[in-house]
Write a structure and sequence with these properties.
40% of the residues lie in helices and 13% in strands. The chain has a 7-stranded mixed β-sheet, with helices on both faces. The chain has 8 helices and 7 strands. It is globular, with a radius of gyration of 18 Å. The chain has 249 residues and is α+β, with helices and mostly antiparallel strands. The longest helix is centred in the C-terminal third of the chain and has 24 residues.
């Protein structure tokens, strides 16, 4: 069945590409993980699971469907919303500033969480968004549960607070984005959290001798803006998909 054009085809395509980017970057193995985008106060587009599921790396526009925040929508036969739809629904319900949600399972974040490795600001210009994430602190949702009920989603929302990222201990991550490029921003933040976690895990393996950045170095780490931090990174990863033959037709 070919992908069909619709007024929402652009947003569906972006979500499908986001899923492919996350999987290609190693943040979403096999069939696990999902991406959503707000359509209004009580509706979203979300990556669903169909009868011929092949995993996030092979997501197409037809895998993305519109549902309300309770998961009700006109889904094709044999299609289902994600088990963990409450991650998306409760974040969108509680935070009007949020327009997109990414949930995935980066292995480095998993290890950092279960080993309780602190995500400290030990590097700077190597990766400024990751350094700033460490400086701000990464909130932790402490339960290694399948967030399949609204009350569990609300627990996650409470743990995450006003942050743009959350480490879900023994599970994965949730990240959010806002504005016209919300999906791209949420993906960039997931990639950034993965960088911070990978460095932190390796730092712990080597004996954890690194010191936190001094204030005078922190002062020299500017925010380079969303075009640089989010959109350039997004275009880079789309180019990687093209190179690997994984771009959408």
């Amino acid at each position: 069945m070919p992908d069909l054009p619709s007024p929402l085809s652009g947003a569906r395509r972006t979500i499908a590409l986001a899923c492919r980017v996350l999987a290609d970057a190693g943040l979403a193995d096999d069939i696990l993980g999902n991406v959503s985008f707000r359509l209004g106060p009580d509706r979203m587009l979300v990556r669903c699971r169909g009868p011929e599921e092949e995993g996030l790396l092979f997501t197409r526009q037809r895998d993305v469907h519109a549902v309300d925040l309770d998961g009700r929508g006109d889904l094709p036969a044999a299609w289902t919303v994600p088990n963990e739809l409450p991650i998306h629904a409760e974040l969108l319900r509680a935070r009007p500033d949020v327009d997109a949600v990414v949930h995935c399972h980066p292995s480095a974040v998993l290890v950092a969480g279960v080993e309780e490795i602190p995500l400290r600001p030990v590097f700077g210009a190597y990766h400024i968004p990751a350094a700033r994430l460490a400086l701000d602190g990464v909130p932790v949702y402490p339960r290694a549960v399948l967030v399949r009920r609204p009350e569990l989603g609300r627990e996650l929302v409470e743990a995450m607070g006003s942050s743009t990222v959350c480490l879900m201990k023994g599970h994965g991550i949730a990240t959010v984005g806002s504005g016209p490029h919300a999906v791209e921003q949420a993906v960039a933040r997931a990639l950034t959290l993965d960088v911070l976690a990978r460095v932190s895990v390796e730092r712990a393996r080597l004996g954890d001798r690194a010191r936190d950045l001094p204030p005078e170095d922190v002062a020299e780490l500017p925010d380079l803006g969303s075009s640089f931090n989010d959109l350039n990174i997004w275009r880079h990863h789309l180019a990687r998909l093209r190179l690997r033959g994984l771009a959408l037709d």
